[in-house]
Specification:
17 helices; Beta-Lactamase; six-stranded mixed beta sheet
């Protein structure tokens, strides 16, 4: 009994001395690794083990990490992978705060210890939690090859040793957190500016990588910032270590990141961060699987978010398994919280600048289209400007003419090829109807169009449609007034000699004047009638110019060809002519938009010219043909028989038999030289119409011209009809 008592006392003394030494170790200023190593040596004096492991727990992150291991199967500088707090004996000790004895791994059942499995054939283990102020912060686990190697005595001793180590572990963790917080605060002053200047300054990424390298050890940095609905800014940098060689294949792969949709759209979800200790185990994500071929084994994704909206992802990749720990994760989450407001404000500022630039461009385009005289050149310039704003590969303006769509303007950087090309097709429409369409395309590497870009394209399409409508309106109605300065000067210059000729001829016709009999009188009658006709025409020409300094104004109203023919027939019936005139007009002739008085004057004057050219005994036909897109008026001489079919509407007023009179037109005189024809040409040009003057071989008629159609509207009463 004395011997046994002496042995117990000696053992108690050894245990007390070992615990005192452990207390001194825990209170020393040694590094954590040295403390773990010395602690393992003292535990060896208390119990036998073949391997000893230290674990630190992060209950908030639900992770358990082995920070030190000594004994069988341990390699120097071996990295340890974190585990989830569930299932094994060590993890149960963390969760419950109680120590456990694993007598034999082969028969442990639910208390199985995953750390015992392996080639070392470890059979038993003792797990003691490390707590501080009622909170479990880690665990100690000695392991042995022999089953049932540990008794409640060793369990009690290990619990006491763990309690002595608890304050030092807590202080070490607190110091590490404070140090990380200090680094975080120092980096928080420079990181926002670096992130905010990534788009403008590529060198900012290198400075960002150097700054983050102070708190994390990584090989690859990728940052993705969301700009709009679909557009992302993607930047990447490879942090080459002194012993690492640059990988050209990896460099080429990183160059493709800005256009890689799998990369730019992948986010860590709703979590603030995602730690992937083993990329090989996280299969199924293609953007990570591609990195496996370049030797990356772990990654850490940190979400950049403002309130609840994520607008960016900061990703770190390491070629070491479990290259990032919980403290690094926490530090980067804190940095992200500091970066987010600055990045968000920089993003909003860039958006405001971009919107101002777009508004200025739209204003310049509108002014250019409104002031241009060459609509197609202006549209080409506008398309180039808009394609730059939209980052488009091509922009085409297709105009509808005569039922067909043809490209009239546009700009192209490249032709559409294979792949998922983004394309917008916008209709060019106004109240008058469709005018065409606008097509905007973007290559796959530039991504799809965002909602703001679609809105910008729609605004530009509205400007193009308005310009096309104005151009089409101007082509039909070039101006409401035309200058007659040269023709007015000619009329004023002709009035004086014509008045003198008129007075002289009237004097010659008096009975007391002697002239050669018949020839002289016939000649004088011809001159007298010709001067009357010219005087009437000149009077009609000058009447509107008296109040507006030589400017004739057109009064455009809706009318019909039948109404114009009726008025021209009445006008010609009031004047004595020898040639009968026949008017032909189909019943389905469309409505016109003309100055009725001017067009009636043109028809009557050209019909008289045609009759005078044909000579006495001939007849004149004035026909409206609707076979083309616009009604065509043909004036000439031909057979007197009139087709009274269903497509004609001929009444007695359409046939005018004029009284006999001598030949007025001198033989050999060209129609272009006739003053009335010149006046008619000017009146038609005021309507945007060209007068064709014959005769032509194999084509009937002496005069041909088109009449402008009235805009489409609801049926109503036509003016003058």
């Amino acid at each position: 009994e004395n011997i046994q008592l002496q042995q117990r006392l000696e053992r108690r003394k050894a245990e007390t001395l070992a615990l005192e030494r452990i207390a001194k170790i825990a209170s020393s200023d040694a590094t954590p690794g040295r403390i773990y190593r010395q602690f393992a040596g003292e535990i060896k004096q208390l119990m036998d083990y073949h391997r000893l492991s230290f674990y630190l727990a992060d209950v908030d992150a639900d992770l358990l990490t082995c920070v030190y291991r000594q004994g069988l199967g341990v390699r120097r500088h071996q990295p340890f992978e974190p585990h989830r707090l569930s299932g094994s004996a060590c993890e149960l000790a963390i969760a419950e705060g109680q120590s456990y004895i694993v007598d034999d791994e082969h028969y442990s059942g639910d208390m199985a210890c995953a750390e015992l499995a392996g080639a070392q054939r470890l059979r038993s283990a003792l797990v003691a939690p490390i707590d501080f102020e009622g909170k479990v912060i880690g665990a100690i686990m000695p392991q042995n090859k022999r089953p049932n190697a540990y008794t409640p005595l060793e369990q009690r001793l290990l619990e006491q040793a763990a309690r002595l180590l608890g304050p030092r572990i807590a202080n070490t963790e607190l110091y590490a957190r404070l140090s990380a917080k200090a680094q975080e605060l120092s980096l928080a002053r420079v990181l926002p500016d670096l992130i905010g200047s990534l788009e403008e300054s590529p060198d900012a990424l290198r400075r960002l990588g150097d700054a983050l390298g102070k708190v994390a050890d990584f090989d690859l940095l990728v940052i993705r910032l969301k700009c709009g609905d679909q557009r992302w800014i993607v930047r990447s940098i490879l942090m080459c270590r002194p012993t690492a060689n640059p990988d050209r294949a990896l460099s080429r792969f990183l160059e493709t990141l800005p256009g890689n949709q799998q990369w730019i759209s992948k986010q860590p979800g709703e979590a603030r961060s995602v730690l992937v200790p083993d990329l090989q185990a996280a299969s199924g994500e293609s953007f990570q699987e591609e990195l496996l071929g370049f030797g990356f084994k772990s990654c850490l994704h940190v979400s950049l978010r403002s309130r609840s909206e994520s607008f960016g992802v900061l990703s770190l990749y390491s070629r070491q398994p479990s290259g990032f720990d919980v403290s690094t994760r926490r530090t980067l989450e804190g940095l992200a919280s500091h970066m987010a407001p600055v990045v968000q404000h920089a993003h909003l500022y860039r958006e405001a600048q971009e919107q101002a630039r777009r508004n200025q461009a739209l204003s310049s385009i509108a002014q250019e289209l409104a002031a241009t005289t060459d609509i197609w050149a202006a549209l080409n310039s506008a398309c180039e400007t808009m394609a730059g704003l939209l980052d488009a590969s091509y922009l085409d303006v297709l105009v509808q003419e005569d039922g067909q769509i043809t490209q009239k303007a546009g700009w192209r950087r490249e032709q559409a090829g294979e792949g998922d090309w983004g394309e917008m097709v916008l209709s060019l429409e106004r109240e008058t109807g469709p005018l065409g369409r606008m097509v905007v395309g973007r290559s796959p590497e530039r991504g799809r169009f965002s909602a703001s870009e679609v809105q910008l394209a729609e605004t530009f399409a509205g400007q193009v449609a308005a310009a096309l409508e104005q151009f089409r309106y101007n082509s039909l109605q070039p101006k409401d007034s035309i200058g007659w300065e040269s023709l007015g000067d000619l009329a004023h210059a002709l009035r004086s000699p014509l008045a003198a000729i008129k007075g002289y001829c009237s004097a010659l016709l008096q009975s007391d004047v002697t002239w050669p009999p018949e020839l002289q009188r016939e000649f004088l009658e011809t001159i007298d009638e010709e001067t009357d006709v010219l005087n009437v025409v000149i009077g009609e020409l000058l009447a509107p110019t008296d109040g507006d300094a030589g400017v004739v104004r057109l009064d455009r109203v809706e009318s019909t060809a039948q109404f114009l023919f009726d008025q021209a027939g009445r006008m010609m019936a009031e004047k004595s002519q020898s040639v009968p005139v026949e008017f032909r007009c189909p019943s389905d002739a469309p409505p016109l938009l003309v100055d009725s008085a001017r067009i009636v004057q043109v028809i009557s004057d050209l019909a008289r010219c045609a009759g005078q050219t044909a000579g006495s005994g001939a007849r004149v036909t004035v026909e409206c043909s609707c076979q083309e897109t616009q009604p065509e008026i043909v004036i000439g001489t031909g057979d007197m028989e009139v087709d009274g079919g269903a497509d004609s509407n001929i009444t007695g007023a359409d046939k005018t038999d004029l009284a006999a009179s001598p030949e007025l037109r001198l033989p050999g005189l060209r129609l272009e030289e006739d003053l009335r024809v010149t006046i008619c040409q000017s009146l038609l040009e005021a309507h945007g119409i060209r007068l064709e003057i014959g005769p032509w071989k194999g084509r009937p008629g002496l005069f041909r011209f088109l009449l402008p159609l009235a805009p489409a509207r609801d049926p109503g009463v036509l003016a003058g009809a």
